[in-house]
Design brief:
The chain has six helices and no strands. It is mainly alpha-helical and 132 residues long.
Length: 132
């Protein structure tokens, strides 16, 4: 949100796009997509060491990864020079979800694709002249 505060008009749009993309994606994945697939998490199906809380919700797709990639995509649309950093951070979020035993690689891949899609649409809408 510092981008929105410090970046003037462009920063406001970038900050709003990033927040909307991230929150909107989280809502869609958690409430609409996961209940359709209901895939069990890796630690349910196998002996996998889990770091952190063993959540009971579905595994597919990864909501953390989707949200991270949505935010990264929206922010990178307004600040292309930030793309390497924000996409590296989003990728690390996805990798950590697999490493910690909470997701399969396909969960993270699907989450990344959903995030890029929603981040792109959100940023595009907020770049239209009628917004802000």
């Amino acid at each position: 949100m510092g981008v929105a505060w410090l970046g003037g008009r462009r920063g406001r749009r970038a900050g709003i796009a990033t927040a909307l993309a991230s929150l909107g994606t989280t809502y869609v994945v958690q409430r609409m997509v996961k209940p359709i697939f209901r895939r069990r998490r890796p630690f349910v199906a196998r002996e996998v060491m889990v770091v952190g809380i063993r959540t009971a919700d579905a595994s597919f797709p990864s909501g953390h990864t989707a949200s991270s990639f949505a935010a990264a995509t929206a922010l990178a649309t307004f600040y292309p020079n930030a793309a390497p950093l924000v996409f590296t951070l989003a990728t690390l979020v996805g990798a950590s979800r697999v490493h910690l035993g909470h997701h399969f690689p396909s969960d993270v891949t699907a989450g990344a694709l959903i995030g890029v899609g929603t981040g792109t649409v959100t940023a595009w809408l907020l770049k239209l002249p009628r917004f802000l």
